[in-house]
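[SOLVED] Need 3D model of a two-part complex

Original post:
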Amino acid sequence: MSWRARGLALALLGLAGAVGARADIPAGERKSGALFMSKQTQAMQADDTANPGMLAAAEGEGLWNASPAPGGKSCAQCHGAAETAMKGVAARYPAVHEASGRVVDLDGRINVCRQEKQNASPLARESRELLALSAYVGLQSRGLAVAPPDDARLAAARERGRALWETRMGQLNFSCAQCHDDNWGKHLGSAPIPQAHANAYPIYRLEWQGMGSLQRRLRNCMSGVRGEPFALGSPEFIDLEAFLAARAQGMPVETPGVRP
Amino acid sequence: MRSAALWGAWAAISLTGMAAQAQLAPFEVVGDAIPKPLTDTPGDPARGRAIVADRQKGLCLLCHTGPIPEQRFQGDIAPDLAGAGSRWSVEQLRMRIVDGTRLNPATPMPSYYRVEGLNRVAPAFRGAPILDAQQVEDVVAFLATLRDPPSQTGKP
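Solution:
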């Protein structure tokens, strides 16, 4: 198959993925992970004075307005008020970074800004500061629909992500899809299996007693099946994030979510 | 020199693979069953029950409900283990524990006695099956005792 034909095939696969392929959960049956939680945990997320993720977002607001390095501009100096400038932005990520042509997730995009515009070093994945900034930027999309861009370069990433989603891994030999597409609503031990929609990250996870990104959550599941997790920031995780954004298309953003 | 180093690396990889395989007792599949035990020591149902209940060893109750009443929080992804001993013969049970994907490639059931053909196994578990041969025999012996079908009462 020529590269051109292969590209076309991938694009068509991407299209099929966007409208719902084989074992996908029908749009009418999609449920946020919040609906699988106890009433108490749902209430914790819903109440901004009880949601611990709001503390991270508040810290993020401070970082948004502060210069990250000597001589570096703050986020606000370029973008202005996050409430308007960042509205709907997190709902669109991962997206293509035009200057490099790379697919980047929101955390990656924040680091692009730091390096290219702010005279600052990139923040480590899962660092307190990066989670705070992504929580604050994500908060500006709360209630808006997950809206991944219509872009062929993203379609290719989504298809790679879907392939990973459906790949059995680890000594226990499970794919993501086997639990979260095929068996959601049932129980693993006592824990309800959610549909694994990526519409609330970064989250405050009770099990962590802290904030974490979607990539941290994915690493948890990969360790759970006795697999070797992908590295934080790896292309595989970006592809999975791109796939999961398309899978959650149209669902309201809940950032910062609370999860058990 | 260089080719010798390459040869050495290749040999090391091959030997690792052979060592991984060598850890597994050979077995023969006939139809949907493994007729002969993996070990000379007969399986012990009591030990098998403990393995089934252990969430680090058998992990069975994460997905299956089973007649092990002292274990709370049993999963409901997979069929109830009650009655497994009347649904399947010992030989069929052995096949399903060793590698159920040979019967149904799409089954979520882990292959308990297999080291090849797996993907991204964490270093701590690489090259080792989930259960060793004797543990497989113990689990099979326990499951064979589960003759009664699932109780219709007492389920949440």
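Edit: The domain at 28-259 of chain A is CATH 1.10.760.10 (Cytochrome Bc1 Complex; Chain D, domain 2).
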